[in-house]
Design a protein that fits this description.
Length: 303
């Protein structure tokens, strides 16, 4: 039987009096791309650092690549790839020189050959002689990914790898992640982008250190049991203000000429719309999005 790549139970971490990760449990199967979401400061980076053996949890238990996250931390670090949230590189070195430097820093055997292979695997060969400081955001991320894959890890922790990268480069980066996943590499990737969350096999959502949702996009949306109605027409902002007065209207968002109204009580929503939406406006039910589900999850958690 295939053992999961990550299997942790009830991890806790305090920084001083601040309880930043609370009873965090997660299982990531081999080859899965697991999205890690949550607002700033919710504890994503801290959880990642506990899972990959960089910091010790205060309590809990768990394994990463079948190694104990308490007692085998040094071995775990050698076997996983970790792309940190604010990675850095040497701007006046080329891509190739950066990778060679890192390979030697970690005293990898057959450094040259591994750099060659990684450049080719990640589509960097044609740019290998370009200076790192001259690269666009997308190529920089790709180089950072290459740097954490030189030792051919079977599990990657990527902490906001595409922050600030344009949509085309993000799409290409995600294509690469899916190729790696096809090759059996497991990936835990944190992101604030909903389109990226939807490209994951499964998603974990953290808020104030607590895991609020965990599952596929469809499971997470279904668990919230929401109805979303779309209203098309003019002057939606005024209508939005009126609809917000109704307790059953839990969330409203305007997208251009469309207003989305979300709540858990479909009959109540329809009644609210009948009483407020003027003649000539088009109303229809639309699918609730992952973003709607997360926003409401947060709201419920805050109350
Ligand atoms: N070494 C540390 N010492 C003290 N507090 C810390 C330390 N590292 C993180 N924290 C605090 O722990 C909380 C969780 O931080 P963490 O970096 O894990 O969040 P995050 O979800 O990764 O946020 P972001 O989306 O901004 O990257 C924050 O309040 C942060 O200030
Ligand atoms: Mg972080």
């Amino acid at each position: 039987m295939n053992e999961p790549s990550i299997d942790v139970h009830k991890l806790n971490k305090h920084f001083g009096k601040h309880h930043v990760v609370k009873d965090f449990s997660l299982t990531v199967q081999k080859g899965d791309i697991y999205g890690f979401l949550g607002p700033n400061g919710s504890g994503k980076t801290t959880s990642i650092r506990m899972m990959c053996g960089l910091i010790t949890p205060d309590s809990g238990s768990g394994h990463c690549l079948n190694m104990d996250i308490f007692t085998q931390r040094d071995t775990i670090k050698k076997r996983i790839g970790y792309m940190t949230q604010h990675f850095s590189m040497w701007g006046s070195l080329t891509i190739r020189e950066n990778l060679l430097f890192i390979a030697r820093l970690y005293t990898l055997e057959n450094a040259r050959q591994k750099v060659e292979q990684t450049l080719s695997d990640l589509g960097l060969s044609s740019r290998q002689h370009q200076l790192a400081k001259e690269l666009s955001g997308g190529w920089k991320q790709r180089m950072a990914l290459a740097a954490c894959m030189l030792h051919q890890p079977s599990l990657l922790f990527l902490d906001e790898p595409t922050a600030g990268v344009d949509p085309k480069a993000r799409r290409e980066f995600w294509q690469t992640l899916h190729q790696l996943s096809n090759d059996g590499i497991s990936i835990l990737v944190s992101t604030h982008y909903m389109d990226e969350a939807e490209r994951c096999h499964r998603i974990a959502y953290l808020s104030y250190g607590q895991l609020l949702a965990n599952g596929t996009t469809q499971e997470i949306i279904a668990a919230q049991n929401l109805t979303t109605l779309q209203i098309r027409g003019q002057q939606l902002s005024r209508l939005e203000g009126r609809l917000r007065q109704y307790p059953c209207v839990e969330q409203t968002v305007i997208f251009g000429n469309a207003l989305h109204v979300t709540g858990r009580d479909p009959a109540g929503l329809r009644a609210a719309l009948s009483a407020t939406v003027p003649e000539g406006y088009e109303v229809r039910q639309v699918e609730t999005t992952l973003e709607d589900a997360f926003t409401l999850l947060m709201k419920t958690h805050d109350e």
